[in-house]
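Entry type: protein chain
Record version: 2
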Amino acid sequence: MFNFKIATAAAIGLLLQAQAFAGIYTGSSVTVSGYTASGSVYQTRFSSNSTEGIGCYIGAYVANADITNTSANVYLSCSATNSSGTTYSCYVNNPPAVWITMMSSINQVSWIYFYGDSQGHCQGLNVEQNSNNL
């Protein structure tokens, strides 16, 4: 009978124990400060509020609606909103090719940091891929 009580108590203790995960977690919510913004895509997606968001968009257009124009203009824009609703967005026309590559790699393990100027022109973009962001 004594062994049964110990076994039962141990089993209940294991069931009530907090779940532990191996590895380090450094994911962060969205921060917006002046003309900079950053945040973890995963943390933002699964935050407890419905306000936060961060991401980048790439598009192309032709000048003067001339569909025969074979040299399209490319633009990249990034936007972030923190939990209190503060937003910063920026864009750049014909961004460096490396920015397009970086933007195209954004996924759930990405941490995004971008900054610009008071007119909303992007001046820098960093994308980190790391399991720490999950």
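Comment: Residues 50 and 69 are 41 Å apart (CA to CA).
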